[in-house]
Amino acid sequence: MVSFIIDQLFIMGLLFALLAGTVLPRPPEVRDRLAAAADQAERSRILKSYNENPAIQARQVNNTRFWLVAAVLYHIGLRRTRGGTVGHRLTGIRLIDCHNEPPALRVLVKRFFSAMLLAGPFGASYFLCMKNPKRQSMHDRWCNTWVVRSDATPAGPGILVHRMKVLSSWVIRYLDIEPMPEGQSGAPNATGEAPIGGQESSPAGSSF
What is the pLDDT of residue 2? Predict the structure, then answer.
């Protein structure tokens, strides 16, 4: 949750910087007119006229587009690295798949848009994940990803288990990781591969 807040503040700070560079540095003639305005109503008319300038509006649209692209690249691109986003680095967590590696690009794209849908602007699903023993949010379950501490190491070999959760009229199927039962060490897991070491010893809870 702390990582989510840090990342949101970082992205919103970028948006404010872009808008400030477009709207706040007004030309000297506009500042002079504002200083000479007799009342607040006149200042509002001056600002409205300035903000409706086609050139200013075009710059605002371009900056907004740049911000949206930067936000997507930030949340998807940085999570392809082991360090993760600024929030991940500052809070000491990382995002992994069932093989203890950074998720694939297509998984991160799916996770990004599902997080926007399920988490919402106030991180609603992060409060719900408190009820999950592994502190895994719905979008992490849906995308088969886990948030763990940066220094977490596998507690031992594990197996992939297919699970299902009914959410209103939706049926969500996802993978979970369970410790390898005794006597099955070395047996293939649910993917037909060697046992995985994804059962982390230090779950950190979910983060956007």
Answer: 79
Written as six digits, the tokens of 41 are: 């109503």
In sequence order, the 6+-apart residues with CB closer than 8 A to the CB of 199 are 154, 155, 156, 157, 158, 177, 178, 179
Residue 172 lies in a domain: yes
Q: Which domain holds residue 135?
A: 93-208
Same domain, 101 and 202: yes
For residues 162 and 115, membership in a common domain is answered with yes
pLDDT, tens only, 136-149: 887 888 888 888 88
pLDDT digits (tens, 9 = 90+) for 48-73: 887 777 877 787 788 788 888 888 88
Count: domains in the chain? 2
Burial (CB count <10 Å: 0-12, 13-18, 19+), residue 65: exposed
Is residue 2 situated within a structural domain? Answer: no
pTM of the shown model: 0.66
Strand partners, 35: none
